[in-house]
Design brief:
Elements (H helix, E strand, L loop, with lengths): L7 E6 L4 E8 L3 E9 L1 H5 L6 H22 L9 E7 L3 H18 L3 E5 H12 L7 E6 L4 E8 L2 E7 L5 H11 L6 H9 L24 H16 L6 H26 L4 E5 L6 H14 L2 E3 L3 H4 L4 H12 L20
Parallel strand pairs: 1-4, 4-5, 6-9, 9-10
Antiparallel strand pairs: 1-2, 2-3, 6-7, 7-8
Bound molecules: 5'-O-[(R)-(carboxyoxy)(hydroxy)phosphoryl]adenosine (KG4) and zinc ion (ZN).
């Protein structure tokens, strides 16, 4: 058999508040993965400030790329292609990565591959699971997205469902703020929920008529706020740990239920989760149990590949590279890019 050429991709990610670069070999082997997080800066404002994010990306991007090359013990001369997130995300933030990727690709005469951010999150699962290949169902849950996706093949996706309002991570962040935990709230709720009773408060689970795979989290968020206000008005105390645990239970139950329905509907035996919220311990436990009960193989990335990173962009870029995807010098940031568009 002819040996496949070894392909090294330099990948860049700057769609939100992480400036990241990575060198990935053949889509699955991480030679380096450098992430410069701006979280400390945005914490002051309780969320990501787009203008600050763009400025910080400009300050950091060259340094992050240099570090990624150094950590991989390589130079641009050994890179075969440049992969970059070009949407969806904050337009000013995306533009920094896209401009940088174009400049490097032009200077070194390398192929340029624009990657969809969600495709990156899904592809994070390829990094640590050499056996994972499409078709499978993937639930992408992050600060900006909640998508249930059927991965038909590398680069071929069908969106089965999405959130109608808040993303799952956004709901975590808003509830965390309401119980005084600060930003970003997801990991904090995850932590204090362990000390609370998940059955203490019955929060609603939204059902959407005619769209069984769609999600809605704003009603749940309002129910939490109403509960807190109700307690305050009655002069009663409330336990933040019980609220966190009960809220988390409601979120996890909905995500598990809709994901398992989708896996069953398409008769698949593989299921993956991705995105920042995929680090959540209750979600991992809930999905693991549900998959075991149904004989489905469950995949999830390590936390470092759940949150925004460039290794996942390199994994996605590799399969796009093999499929022949090449972008021109007119590649632009597309803040509302649809999955599957090229
Ligand atoms: O994927 P990500 O880093 O950025 C986006 O593309 O949005 O996701 C960030 C989101 C935040 O909302 C954060 O609160 C949430 O992921 N998150 C978590 C956990 N770790 C991060 N949510 C729940 N439990 C966690 N352990
Ligand atoms: Zn993300």
């Amino acid at each position: 058999m002819r040996e496949l050429k070894s392909i090294n991709i330099l990948a860049i990610e700057s769609s939100c508040d992480e400036t990241a670069a990575a060198v990935i070999n053949n889509g699955r082997f991480v030679r380096s993965n450098v992430i410069s997080s701006q979280i400390e800066l945005h914490k002051l404002y309780g969320g990501v400030v787009p203008e600050i994010a763009s400025r910080k990306h400009i300050e950091k991007i060259n340094q992050v790329i240099e570090e990624a090359l150094k950590e991989a013990d390589t130079t641009l001369d050994d890179i075969d292609a440049i992969g970059v997130t070009y949407g969806p995300g904050l337009v000013g933030a995306l533009l920094v990565g896209v401009a940088e990727a174009k400049a490097i690709a032009f200077a070194k005469n390398l192929p340029l591959i624009g990657v969809h951010h969600i495709e990156g999150h899904i592809s994070a699962n390829y990094i640590e699971h050499p056996d994972l290949e499409p078709p499978f169902i993937c639930l992408v849950v992050s600060g900006g997205h909640t998508h249930l996706v059927r991965v038909q093949d590398y680069g071929t996706y069908e969106i089965l469902g999405r959130t109608r309002d808040d993303a799952a991570g956004e709901a975590y962040d808003k509830v965390a703020r309401a119980i005084g935990l600060g930003y970003p709230g997801g990991p904090k709720i995850d932590r204090i929920a362990k000390e609370g009773n998940p059955d203490a408060i019955k929060f609603p689970k939204a059902k959407i008529d005619g769209a069984p795979s769609d999600f809605s989290f704003s009603g749940l968020k309002s129910a939490v706020l109403n509960y807190i206000n109700g307690c305050k008005m009655k002069g009663e105390t409330y336990d933040p740990a019980d609220i966190a645990a009960s809220f988390q239970k409601a979120v996890v139950e909905v995500l598990v239920e809709k994901s398992m329905d989708a896996v069953a509907k398409y008769g698949l035996d593989k299921f993956a989760i991705a995105g920042g919220v995929a680090s959540n311990s209750a979600l991992r436990e809930g999905m693991k149990k549900a998959c075991e009960e149904r004989g489905i193989k469950f995949y999830y990335p390590s936390p470092i590949y759940c949150t925004d990173n460039a290794a996942m962009i390199g994994a996605a870029a590799y399969y796009e590279y093999l499929a022949g995807t090449r972008h021109g010098w007119d590649l632009n940031a597309v803040p509302n890019l649809k999955l599957g568009e090229r």
